[in-house]
Amino acid sequence: MECKEIDTLKKAYEDVIWMAIRYANGRSTYAPSMVRDSIKEFQKVFPDWKPRYDLTLKSDRRMVEDGEPKYGLKGDWLDDLVE
Cα–Cα distance between 24 and 4 in angstroms, integer? Predict the structure, then answer.
């Protein structure tokens, strides 16, 4: 594959993954782990790549007791993926 094609595919992934992160953030479904797995696989090819910062990604920390959410799992929140 040519460099331009790789750059095009990388841009397409970046254009979609931010919305997938927003959608999956806080859900008690398979979606959060699916997004995490997708990013890990992508980073095998692009190890320095990180999801872009998204101000809207905030887990509801008021719902956390003793380090664990009152509802769902800690892994349901994806705010740790972005800096």
Answer: 30
Q: Nearest CA to 31 among 79, 75, 71, 83?
A: 75
Per the CB < 8 A criterion, the answer to whether 25 and 32 are in contact is: yes
Number of neighbouring beta carbons within 10 Å of residue 12: 10
Band of residue 26 on the pLDDT scale cut at 50, 70, 90 = confident
Can you give the residue ranges of every domain in the chain?
A: 3-81
Q: Higher confidence at residue 80 or residue 30?
A: 30
What is the pTM assigned to this prediction?
Answer: 0.79
Strands of 1-83, DSSP E: 64-65, 68-69
d(CA 56, CA 59): 9
DSSP letters for 45-62:
HSTT--PPP-TT----GG
